[in-house]
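Reopening: Putative transcriptional regulator still failing for me.
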Amino acid sequence: MDPIGPGNETRTKHEQILHYIQSLKIGTKISVRAIAKALGVSEGTAYKAFKEAESSGIVSTKERIGTVRIDRKRREALDQLTFGEVAEIVEGRLFGGAAGLEKTLHKFVIGAMELDAMLRYIDEGSLLIVGNRVGAHRCALEEGAGVLITGGFEPSPEVIKLADERSLPILSSRHDTFTVASMINRAMYDRLIKRKIMLIEDIVTFSRPADVLQSGHTVSNFHKLSQETGYSRFPVVDERSRVVGMMTAKDAVGSPEDTVVDKLMTRQPITAAPNISVTSAAHTMAAEGIDLLPIVDRHRKLLGVVTRQEVLDAMRFAGKQPESGETFEDLMWTGFMASTSVNGQDELGIAYKGSITPQMSGALGMVSEGLLATLMTQAARRMIRETAKRDYLLESMTTYFVRPVHIDSEISIIPRALEMSRKFTKLEIEVLDPQGLAAKAMMTAQMIDPY
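Support: Ran it again with your exact input. Result attached.
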């Protein structure tokens, strides 16, 4: 029997595969071919279900490891690396303990000391990075820690057996200890930066049903739902909960109560995925002039809705949080200070003064054009934050490079607001060095209110 085809049979097979995967024990290795054979479906159908299971966070596929049944990933633990992610980062090979790949580690310990001293630092949830020391491998597993063997060495059969029993991964990497420690540390640092980026899935309660209209409902149903909720905009979904339209009070004006909403609604409305940033959603809603955004999966099935007010509230909250981890933009801006004086002459507005360091140089030994443009946008953002207590989303920027800027030069960046309203701003930004004007930009941006 070929399960691939139209109708309910395909959907049933698809759901059957997902249910089967969810019933597997955490840590179980699985494959498309094995699932297809076990359930009597084609490999194409199994592959599609695998991809959905992976995007849902119930399986994980990693090079040199394969596909493993895992606990659903939690956004709250974004800053914590799993053992499986460590294996991918260091190009590691898994020898045992596959059931523990999705466990998170809270620290790593470098095994460059005597065993007794090493044990004082090893505890449950840590990762021991060590060379070919069998005794250390065994002790770490007994203490509840995973093991990463450097230098390409392999663990003993006894240690592999213990790793499987304790569900603690034992990995091997061809890199040396210093290199793998640096790679893991860099990845952990990057997670700190990502943690500050708020996603739609962080603010939408997907377990709470959204207020929706069904395809086939009438204007009367719309008015009733509007009175019950106080809202005037609702997604319209079909029998499989897929978003097929958006119905608003404007659409309903002047229409008889028995008119079907399918005839009045806006078809193929703008939607968003749960993993987009809140800032991206704010830009979409402002640009399109919409106050409610349906959140859908890749099949357009409705997961929830988010309002413009919820997005703005989230951005205000994020703007008040302390910085965690420095981005390249933060590093570029290090050393720049706000000033109201330019070349000894008092001017209205704010100027930002700083030095061009050797790390900012381009191929010809001058400051790179891309970095100079970034410094101008950084100055503009800080000026708007300090004077208007707002932020912006860049729409366009035209940059003029008058002449090269040498490294070690002292420069001033002066952003001036030509127009500024509640929704838009137009800025002129100048870069001055000791010889005068070096670069200039004209920028238009969409204003947002995160504070």
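DSSP finds 14 helices and 20 strands in the chain. If you still see a failure, please send the error message rather than a screenshot.
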